[in-house]
Amino acid sequence: MPTLYGVNASPFVRKVRVVLAEKGMAYEHDPIIPFNVSPEYKRISPLGKVPAYRDGERTLADSSVICAYLERVKPEPALYPSDPYEYARALWFEEYGDSGLAPVMGPKIFFQKIVGPRFFNQPTDEAVVAKAVAEELPALFDYLEGQLASGDALVGGRFSIADIGIATQFVNLRHAGFGVDAKRWPKLARYVAAVHARPSFKALIDEEAAAFSVTG
Ligand SMILES: N[C@@H](CCC(=O)N[C@@H](CS)C(=O)NCC(=O)O)C(=O)O
């Protein structure tokens, strides 16, 4: 059976776990923490990051790479649009999650509120959190609000890697005790709630809650 490496707190590990769940693929999960990783792990993930994936003798690192591989291994249900432009747009939203949302929601909010205090005995720097919430999240949310039409999918009217890549970052925000103000960003608030209610996301959110959520 394939093995997915990486701790549940990571939005990138969760991205792969959602893809595996949506495709109904069985796997073993080794919740490696990406801190002082072993030389053996670095052979699988040369940058020492999570997630990584082993499929027999084949190994891969990077969530986007792993998800793209899984799509080829098990094409149904399709999580990447077939239309060329929609395909590229879906990759763009995945990238927006990875490079736009993650650097704010991860180190400035989730790490400050959950990982630092719980796992590194490091108190929350509330000023960092407040600044990120007040000054950085709004522009990120404004963009997504403007990209959402009616319905619960960002691209092509159908659930895709775009939605997985965006919504996984919002799980970390949610664990840290924050959400989307539905008065200011009504489409985004409804969209995030709908994606998080999918069985693939909900099972992981529930599994993670005890260890990684303010409510846990
Ligand atoms: N582009 C990578 C990013 C992965 C990433 O940054 N993972 C973090 C955990 S959320 C990590 O392993 N950090 C440890 C490090 O950077 O050494 C992916 O999509 O897999």
Task: Give an overview of the whole structure.
The longest helix is centred in the middle third of the chain and has 36 residues, at 84-119. Strand 3 and strand 4 (58-61) form a beta hairpin. Helix 4 runs parallel beside helix 6 (161-175) and helix 6 (161-175) runs parallel beside helix 8. The mean pLDDT is 97. 60% of the residues lie in helices and 6% in strands. The protein contains eight helices and four strands. The chain has 216 residues and is α+β, with helices and mostly antiparallel strands. The chain has a four-stranded mixed beta sheet, covered by helices on one side. It is globular, with a radius of gyration of 17 Å. The structure holds glutathione. Glutathione (GSH) is lined by residues 10, 12, 34, 48-51, 62-64, 98.
Tell me briefly what this model is.
The chain has 216 residues and is an alpha+beta fold.
Radius of gyration of CA atoms, rounded to a whole number: 17 Å
Silhouette: globular
Mean pLDDT: 97
Q: What structural class do helix, strand and pairing data support? A: alpha+beta
* Helical content class: 55-70%
* Total beta strands: 4
Going across the major beta sheet, what is the strand order?
2-1-3-4
Beta-strand share of residues: 5-15%
Poorly predicted ranges (pLDDT <50, ≥5 residues)? Answer: none
Number of helices, where a helix is a run of at least 4 consecutive DSSP H or I residues: 8
Bound molecules: glutathione
Biggest sheet statistics: 4 strands, mixed
